[in-house]
Amino acid sequence: FCGEGAAAAVLCLSYGHSDDRFWLALTVFFMLFPSVLVQLTLMFVHRDLSRDRPLVLLMHLLQLGPII
Question: Where is the signal peptide (predicted)?
Fold first, then answer.
């Protein structure tokens, strides 16, 4: 998960330097949209399986839910 995020960030930097806005926008969209959907799904799973814990919710807000 972290490696995929790092690779997408490097790719976004590369597209930013080459001024290729179309591919930059697609890369950002395909990097953020699935991540947000995974975080929302994991928030519901954690909420159903255990009590609300502030650290777990913070990790989901920071997009680090799969690491938990």
Answer: none
